Amino acid sequence: MHTLPVRIAHNLDRVLEAKRRRRRELAALPSVEKIRLIETMRERNASIARNPLRAAKRPKA
Known about the structure:
Layout: H1 4-28, H2 31-50, H3 52-57
């Protein structure tokens, strides 16, 4: 039996636990802080969308 699946499962457990922990941390934040985070993410997303290099990397159909 190979040990790779066990290592992958162990890493997956760590990743999933980190995600659960982060979700709990975010849930505990005040609403004002959550809104600030959302606005920051929207600004970042818009900035990425406006980047001319992003459009240059898209494959042409």
